[in-house]
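Regression test case RT-17, inverse folding.

Input:
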């Protein structure tokens, strides 16, 4: 029963976090739209039938049945057809009908007296500000949440508390892991270091991290050095002499370095034979923006390779292959991961909660990057339309030509429908894959 409750709690925490993120994303659009005088008819979380709504002023605020996004309805998203253009008739093609319907729907959002409070009449920089307001809000949320995770809770890493003390000194290349008679005694055990001790200083240098302690030990081969540990709340001074041992070379991420032939690289360094414990290590605030930047880069790379990634998802869902843990995941998959995190009893509760916050932070990065794709109906599509209008007007002014007017974004409504169809198909594929072949921890 407890496991079920924890699973449900994990799902609820992430679901509420994502819902609030969507709501704040739309507020990122709503606030500048109202500041710039655009009439906003609706602010809705979700799609489909309305479950609840309340009107305040000219705007209806509400929640809809399908919680897969949100929107604000601004007056005059599409400009009217140019004067003298051909009107829609019964013989007009299907795509032209879609275009005209979009213009009609846009015109219907403009009540009498609000003809100048429309989106398409705004200066280009204001339109871009409105459309980027949502992604910017996701960026702010991601930075704040990553700050909470990294600097508030910390990330799992090696602590300065000693978790293990080797009885003998085996080289990293040894094929066995147990000591035998005749093996060289490990200098840490010989010096009296015990599991549970916390390193205080080595060779007179206060220890602030395990990597710092390792660096001092590795360059002190065959040199007696004082090692001060905290044991039962008291400082205990010991003397240890690191021996020369063959160890693997690690990169900054802790991975073993390999040469051009794929062989693991080793080096002779000082060795005591002590191993660190694992704890949540709080990171400085300066680590937050690089972490967000790394996530943004990963999501951009995923989107650039999205067709192949979706093919991989389909092959895994309908075949015997495994899902790529770094591939795309749908809302059901995110919920399942949240439930698994919450029920991982081997991990402290604080770390589990931190991971749930990290999931919400990563979702906000995904929302940021995905909404910047320059295709309508995504925010990036509207930004691209405004930029194209700015380019056209710049060159018209440069060559002293007539102002070309606003870009008729309604003409790409057929492409918008195609994008919506593709996004729907992608969502259904991820939904199926998350059910039959989920990504697991």
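Golden output:
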């Amino acid at each position: 029963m407890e496991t079920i409750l924890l699973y449900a709690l994990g799902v609820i925490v992430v679901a509420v976090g994502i819902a609030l993120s969507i709501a704040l994303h739309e507020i990122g659009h709503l606030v500048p739209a109202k500041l710039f005088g655009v009439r906003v008819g609706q602010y809705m979380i979700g799609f489909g039938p309305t479950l609840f709504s309340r009107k305040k002023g000219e705007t209806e605020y509400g929640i809809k049945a399908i919680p897969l996004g949100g929107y604000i309805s601004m007056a005059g998203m599409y400009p009217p057809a140019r004067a003298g253009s051909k009107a829609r008739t019964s013989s007009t093609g299907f795509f032209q009908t879609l275009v005209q319907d979009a213009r009609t729907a846009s015109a219907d959002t403009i009540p009498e007296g609000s003809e100048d409070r429309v989106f398409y009449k705004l200066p280009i920089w204001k339109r871009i500000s409105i459309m980027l307001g949502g992604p910017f809000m996701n960026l702010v949320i991601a930075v704040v949440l990553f700050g909470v995770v990294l600097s508030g809770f910390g990330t799992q890493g090696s602590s300065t508390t000693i978790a293990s003390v080797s009885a003998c000194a085996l080289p990293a290349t040894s094929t066995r892991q147990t000591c035998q008679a005749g093996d060289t005694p490990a200098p840490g055990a010989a010096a009296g270091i015990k599991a549970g001790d916390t390193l205080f200083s080595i060779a007179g240098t206060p220890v602030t991290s395990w990597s710092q302690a390792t660096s001092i030990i590795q360059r002190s081969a065959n040199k007696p050095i004082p090692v001060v540990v905290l044991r039962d709340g008291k400082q205990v001074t010991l003397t240890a002499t690191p021996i020369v041992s063959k160890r693997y070379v690690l990169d900054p991420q802790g991975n073993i370095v390999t040469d051009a032939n794929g062989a693991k690289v080793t080096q002779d360094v000082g060795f005591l034979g002590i191993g660190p414990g694992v704890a949540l290590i709080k990171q400085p605030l300066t680590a937050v923006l690089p972490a967000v930047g790394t996530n943004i880069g990963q999501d951009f790379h995923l989107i650039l390779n999205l067709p192949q990634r979706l093919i991989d998802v389909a092959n895994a869902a309908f075949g015997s292959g495994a899902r790529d843990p770094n591939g795309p995941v749908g809302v059901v998959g995110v919920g399942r991961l949240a439930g698994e995190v919450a029920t991982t009893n081997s991990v402290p509760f604080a770390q589990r909660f931190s991971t749930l916050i990290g999931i919400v932070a990563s979702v906000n990065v995904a929302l940021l990057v995905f909404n910047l794709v320059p295709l309508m109906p995504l925010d990036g599509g509207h930004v691209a339309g405004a930029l194209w209008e700015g380019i056209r007007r710049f060159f018209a002014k440069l060559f002293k030509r007539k102002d070309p007017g606003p870009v008729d974004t309604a003409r790409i409504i057929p492409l918008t429908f195609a994008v919506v169809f593709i996004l729907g198909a992608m969502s259904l594929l991820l939904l199926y894959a998350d059910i039959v072949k989920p990504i697991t921890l």
